[in-house]
């Protein structure tokens, strides 16, 4: 899939991408299979049953997803308590912005509210129009890797039997030989705040892009963000563990009114680091868990 410039020319031609062994991320690559799925069900896009994939699960496994919703034309406020209030924070942060050092205020012009009064479905049909909890996201990845949602051969195409197959393409970022010695840089646009900027992307799977303490592990999964929310789920392959963290704003910020905007920005990165370190400590104390642990922690 490709992005187009305003004049309908390719950002980078398919031929150039193929020659360089690169790929360009496009959300349309998720929407087109959604259209095929709707045609298969012989319904219009807004009537398609996206939850049909859970029909192949046992009743016990499927029960986890009963509260999951796939909105189409509804506003988020129409879904009641299923959706928490959402916020977006003024623009991308740029070094030197004086307001970043101001004390955080929820009623500031830097915080946009009212996002629940917009469409929940057009926030990414078949590539993001889902209302779920972090625990459901974790369980989804567990069921996926257990071969309960897709055939195991399809799972292997996504991640490879060793998590390092040839279908991964360079995400971009910094060349490996320019990474700092600790293997990570502070990149706010990546899922965990402090992330490995040289991530790779495969068949709906991000490889890498996690905190420095996981640099010796194979880590994959997928993050996502909407107008006023973000969620990042990662599998630590060698441990058989899955973690997921969500935020009700698009930057993963905290809302501590005794801290500045810049200090609040660190919340998801610090929370992810603490969660990962606790997970690693758990497995180091229980050596048998590395080979026997099949459930997910979140």
Keywords:
298 residues, alpha+beta, 2 domains, two-stranded antiparallel ribbon, disordered C terminus
What is the average per-residue confidence, as pLDDT, rounded to a whole number? 77
From the alpha carbons, calculate the radius of gyration and give it in angstroms: 20 Å
> Largest beta sheet, briefly?
6 strands, antiparallel
Uncertain stretches of 5 or more adjacent residues = 173-197, 287-298
Helix content: 10-25%
Helix count from the secondary structure assignment: 8
The portion of residues forming beta strands comes to: 5-15%
N-C termini distance: 32 Å
Element pattern in H and E = HHHEEHHEEEEEEEEHHH
Number of domains: 2
Shape type: globular
Computed structural class: alpha+beta
Report strand order across the widest sheet: 3-6-7-8-9-10
Q: How many beta strands in the DSSP annotation? A: 10
Topology:
Blueprint (H helix, E strand, L loop, with lengths): L13 H7 L7 H14 L17 H4 L25 E2 L21 E2 L21 H12 L6 H8 L9 E2 L14 E2 L7 E2 L4 E2 L4 E2 L11 E7 L4 E7 L4 E7 L13 H4 L2 H19 L3 H4 L6
Antiparallel strand pairs: 1-2, 3-6, 4-5, 6-7, 7-8, 8-9, 9-10
Characterize the structure shown.
With about 300 residues, the chain is of the alpha+beta class. It has 2 domains: about 50 residues, no CATH class; about 240 residues, no CATH class. It has 8 helices and 10 strands. β8 and β9 form a beta hairpin. The radius of gyration is 20 Å and the shape is globular. The two termini are about 30 Å apart. The C terminus is likely disordered.
